[in-house]
Structures are given as C-alpha cells and as structure tokens.
Amino acid sequence: MAVYTEVPDDDLAAFVAEYDIGRVLSCKGIAEGVENSNYLLQTENGNFILTLYERRVDESDLPYFLGLMAHLADKGLPCPTPTLGRDGRALRRLCGRPAAIVTFLPGVWHRRVGSDDTGQLGTALADMHVKGMDFPLQRPNSLSVESWRPLFAQSRERAHEVLPDLAEELEAELDHLEAAWPTCARLQLPTGNIHADLFPDNVFFLGERLSGLIDFYFACTDFLCYDLGVCLNAWCFEPDTSFNITKARLMFAGYRGVRELARDEMEVMPLMARGSAMRFLLTRLYDWLHRPEGAMVTPKDPLEYVRKLRFHQRVGSAAAYGLD
Amino acid sequence: MAVYTEVPDDDLAAFVAEYDIGRVLSCKGIAEGVENSNYLLQTENGNFILTLYERRVDESDLPYFLGLMAHLADKGLPCPTPTLGRDGRALRRLCGRPAAIVTFLPGVWHRRVGSDDTGQLGTALADMHVKGMDFPLQRPNSLSVESWRPLFAQSRERAHEVLPDLAEELEAELDHLEAAWPTCARLQLPTGNIHADLFPDNVFFLGERLSGLIDFYFACTDFLCYDLGVCLNAWCFEPDTSFNITKARLMFAGYRGVRELARDEMEVMPLMARGSAMRFLLTRLYDWLHRPEGAMVTPKDPLEYVRKLRFHQRVGSAAAYGLD
After folding, report:
1. Cα A67 to the chain's mean position, in Å?
2. In angstroms, rounded to a whole number, what is the distance separating the alpha carbons of residues B234 and A8?
3. Cβ contact, residue pair B9, A106, below 8 Å
4. Pairing of strands B97-103, B92-94
5. Residues B194, B197, B198, B200: what is their CA dihedral angle, to the nearest 10 degrees?
6. Which residues contact B5 (CB under 8 A, 6 or more apart)?
7. How far does the CA of residue B105 sit from the closest CA of chain A (Å)?
8. Are B117 and B205 in contact (CB under 8 A)?
9. Measured between CB atoms, does A206 come within 8 Å of chain B?
C-alpha cells in the first residue's frame, strides 16, 4: 500500500481536462501497488485508475508497459487499457511525475486461493501469452538470472539475520541456476511478453469468475514458461508452504487448453520454478533487510521463498507438479 | 492515510449479503481517515464507503455518530448516511471490528482554499447546526477544556524538543483557558451538535460548488460557536500562518445568512479560537512526540498551531476576525 504523491485538486482538474472523460467527481488514493501512486478516479464518464509513476519505475519502460496493456485489451484480454488524451497520447506529467489514466477493472482478488481459481488463472495466462505474441515492443527481463547475483550482493553480508547459513545456501543455488539457465536458450524455448508478477493480488474475480489481470509493471520479454514458474510459486502453495498439486494440475490444464506446452517447456519447469523462487526471494530479502525502522508497511517474509526454493530443489521432474 | 484491517473477499461477500445493495464489484482500501479503515466499495447498486472502526474509536460512541449522520442526511444536509442492512441495523461486525456501510459522496477537497470556499463553508456549517438541533442523542466533547491539561501532561516533559519553553507557554495558556472557559457556560451560549473537525479535507467540492461534509467521528455536543473557532483555525490562515481576514469575513457572513450569531457568541470568538487552537496543538504535539521511528505517515507539525495560538492571544475582539 502506498500513496506517495499528493495531487492538488486544481492540478488534477487541469490534467483531466486533457482527456474526453468529463469532469472529476472524486479522486481517492488507493492502497494498491507498492511501486506507484494509484488513485481511483471517478469522472462524469465513469471510473478510472490514475497512476503516477514513482522513482522505482524506469520512465523509459513506460511506453512498453502501456503499449502492451493497450495491445492486450484491444485483443479482448480483460486488463486495464490506457485512456488517450485529446492529443492521442496516453502518457503525460502530473506533479512532476509521469502519469497515465487507465480504465477501471471491476473485481476483487481472492485472499484465499480456491482450487477452481488456478484453472481460470492458467487459461488467462495462456490467453495473455497468445495475445501478446505479435506485440512489437520488447523489454528484457531486468530481474532474470544476470541480475540475481548483483542483487544478492546487496544483502549477502546480512543474510544471516534472516537465517543462519542463508548466504551459503543462496550462493550454491546461484551457482546451479547460472550453470543451468543457458540450457533454456539452447533449447530455444518459446519467448514472448510475460506478466512476470501474476500473484493473486493481480488477478480479479467477480464472484467465482476470473474478471481481469492487472499491474503489468514487471511485464517483460522472456520465456513464456517462466510465467508458469512464477504462478506455481504464487498460487500453488498453501499458507503453510505445503505444495497443492491439485491446484498446479488445474493451472497447467487451464493453460494447455489455450496454448500447448512443448516437451522442453515441461522439462525445464523445475528450473523455472527455482529461478522464479530465487527472484522473489532476493527482492524480498533486500526489502526485508533495508526496511525503514518502524515503517508501517511490513515487507513480505523472505523465508516463505526459502521454503519454496527448497521444495523445488527436491523436485526431480515436472511430474511432481502434476505436469505430464 | 491508513488501512489497518485487511478484509478477506469471502468475509466481505458475506457482510455485503446482509444488505440490499447487490453483489460486490470492487473494494479498495483508500488513503483517507487516520482513525479508521476505509474502503471504496462498489456494488451492483452503486458506490459506498465501508468503514471498519479501529481501536482509537470508542465503540459506544458509534450510535451517536451514525445516528447524527442519518439525521442530518435525512434533513437534506449533503453528508454520508449509513446504509441499513435487511435487519434494519446500520452497525455490524466485520473481521472482528465494528463496521458500517455509508453512502458515497462525490467531490474532492480543496488542497488550496479559495476565498469563495469559506463563504460556502460558513453556510454549510450553519446548516448542519440548525439541522442538528433536534437530534435526540448527546455526546460530550471529550477533547474540550477538561481534557487539555491531562493531554498536555503526556507531552510536557518532551515539549522542549518541539520548541524551547513551549511547556511554560502552554501551561500559562491552559491557566487562562481554564479560568475563562466557564464564562461560556454562564453566558448560556447556544449548544448543539457540532462537527468539531471541519478541516478542508472533510469538505468536498464539485468544481467550485461545495458538495458535502464528511467524517463525523469527532462530532459532539458543545457550543455551536466552538465549531467556528475550529474553522477559523483550519480555513482562514494562509500556508505561512498569516491570517486572511477576507476568508474569515466570508465564512461568518455565510454562517449568519443561515443562523444569526448572538452578541455573546461573537464576543467569545477569540476565546473559541484560542481553545480550538489549543485542542489541535495538543493532539498534534502528542502525535509528533509519540510517532513511531521511520513511520511513513508524517504527523502534522504542532508548530503551525503554536503560531495560530499566538495570533489569537493578541486578538482583542471579534472585530479582528472581521466579525462585527
């Protein structure tokens, strides 16, 4: 949760006047998205999300993010789409920050993931992958294997504060990942535009029906099956970190109903799961060790991902995920 | 800004099912209200505010707050009104906290107060006072003169961290206020239900037109003119703490267009202004000295109210406020 930038009402009125969406009726900072300032904006024309991009987002990436959302929404994926101003532009500035207005997506995210949810998740993820195939821009994954060791270096000295010997454990895992990852390139795994952060809070439901995907601000160009690794970690473990193979089976079945997985994509699934576990472990570890004293936002526990990583290390083949 | 309680989606669905407002379409924590958890709730029937009352609110006061809002809205004051469940009750429990759904009020608050704003503010405040006259419940002002010295005692030892000699200055002012306040009772000043916290962020405008008053969670039964003292402090000083007599004149004119002020109410205005300055100074001082280290919410600066208090101490009569 975070609202970083306070928008004066007259600046807001002038900003909204650049669009054909009527007058502002209400604008409330919402406790969603950790990276940016988000407002639920109501105008005479309906509901929108106003986002001010804060310092952690690289401004040069915004055309990719906004373009991908527009491309996917245009093809019928239920996701926010940028609203264009009268000048045809989606991106402008507000309070000194880059800012955009996107359409509002109804739905709530499921705090407790149901077994039925993961099937729909898999279907929607494959749908996104297929619809994103012909999107012309590219953005390398800045949180993939090359970034992990430098990121780890910023937490290494203090990793023992989280767990004794954690530094050594991660060092060994990085050695493994760095040796194994190039295999994927050699295998010429299908690549495309992936979400890369499709956690439950980024998937909306209306009742029991999946109604949309949000938050494309980690989207990038990478192996499509890496997204499944992320979702395995984010959706298929129970709160006690036990693995729920039923949820995983349903997720893969939902995915393969839309896009078939190649044999190689299945075979690298344990590696994808380990790699994505490492990625979230490292950012959580960093945020945990660098949290401001007494901050009101509690960083997510990195230990959850240590446990998930250890699970994947013991997995011999994709069959352990119900994928065969 | 604060969202304290996280509401699971299934608990929310069960809660909303107690009302005749359709299914939940969306529910987002909003960064408004420091005391409670507030959500912008969208259902098939429209927009609402869902509030979970956190520990700083005394549960036994809730029937007064909700009853007053219902009473005022029923009489046509633009303010939120509690939505009743099928059982006829406005107040129930969610996630272990008392909770209510109130109607959504469109509008944005003015970050920069315009001169035209204060006239409308005065009119709306008088309207609230008149419409609240026959509300049958009462709630003594728990932040009036009797509470100020005990509140001060909790900050006294460390007041010098804010300003050298602040403790002595406030001590002398408390002596004055405690001696002068009983005069008001002897004068039999008109009392009634007051807002007691009508700062700019609690007053909404649509364009230039005042559209509503919100946040009645400090409302209480006290001298009506005390509310004008609060508004003098909250609306009639510029950001550099210079007093804007034009804004004050317009506020009083707007007020008196709806409800005439008695001679005594005008004469005690400097005392009301000093008293309300002390009330906000003391709570801000407390919050400032007791803020958690590194907290993301910056407490409001108590020095602003030291400067306002000193201004009022030099005021000889209500004429200095443009009130005559």
Report:
1. 16
2. 17
3. no
4. antiparallel
5. 180
6. B37, B52, B54, B95, B97
7. 8
8. yes
9. yes
Centroid of chain to Cα A30: 18
- Cβ neighbour number for residue A240 with a 10 Å cutoff: 6
| pLDDT level of residue A250 (50, 70, 90 thresholds) | very high
Contact indicator for A290, A158 with CB cutoff of 8 Å? no
Write out the H or E segment, with its range, that includes residue B248: helix B245-256
CA–CA separation, A75 and B140 (whole Å): 60
Among the listed residues B165, B159, B20, B148, the one whose alpha carbon sits nearest the alpha carbon of residue B89: B20
What residues contact B262, with CB distance under 8 A and at least 6 apart?
A: B189, B190
Within 8 A of B205 by CB-CB distance, chain A residues are 9
CA A22 to chain centroid, in Å, comes to 32
Distance CA A225, CA A231 (A): 10
Question: Of A59-73, A151-165, B282-296, B299-313, where does mean pLDDT reach its minimum?
Answer: B282-296
Q: Is the pLDDT of residue A299 over 80?
A: no
| Secondary structure (3-state) at B182 | helix
* CA atoms B213, B216, B221, B226: torsion sign: negative
Q: For A41, which residue in chain B has the nearest alpha carbon?
A: B108
Closest chain A residue to B206, measured at CA: A25
Q: Distance between CA atoms of B223 and B113, rounded to whole angstroms?
A: 25
Contact of B290 with chain A, judged by CB distance below 8 Å, is answered with no
Which one, of A195, A36, A52, A43, lies nearest residue A104 by Cα?
A43
pLDDT per 10-residue tile (average), chain B, 324 residues: 73 96 94 82 96 89 97 98 96 95 96 93 98 97 96 96 95 97 90 97 94 96 98 97 96 98 96 98 94 66 96 95 92
- Please choose, from the candidates B246, B239, B240, B307, the residue with its C-alpha nearest in 3D space to the C-alpha of residue B277: B307
What is the pLDDT at residue A70? 97
The pLDDT value given to residue A33: 67
Show the tokens assigned to B52: 């979970």
Q: Is residue A106 within 8 Å of A234, Cβ to Cβ? A: no
Tell me the residue type at A175: D
- Cβ B28–A24 below 8 Å, yes or no? no
Say whether A91 sits in a helix, a strand or coil: coil
Q: Report CA-CA distances (Å) from A169 to A306, A314, B65.
A: 9, 14, 56
Q: How far apart are the first and last CA of chain B?
A: 39
Phi, psi of B49 (to 5 degrees): -110, 125
pTM of the model: 0.88
Structure tokens at B119: 């006239």
Nearest CA among A74, A108, A76 for reference residue A90? A74
What are the Cα distances from residue A310, in Å, to A271, A305, B44, B231? 12, 8, 45, 60
With a cut of 50, say whether residue A1 has pLDDT above it.
no
Where does residue B296 fall: left (phi above 0), alpha (psi -120 to 50 degrees), or beta otherwise?
Answer: alpha
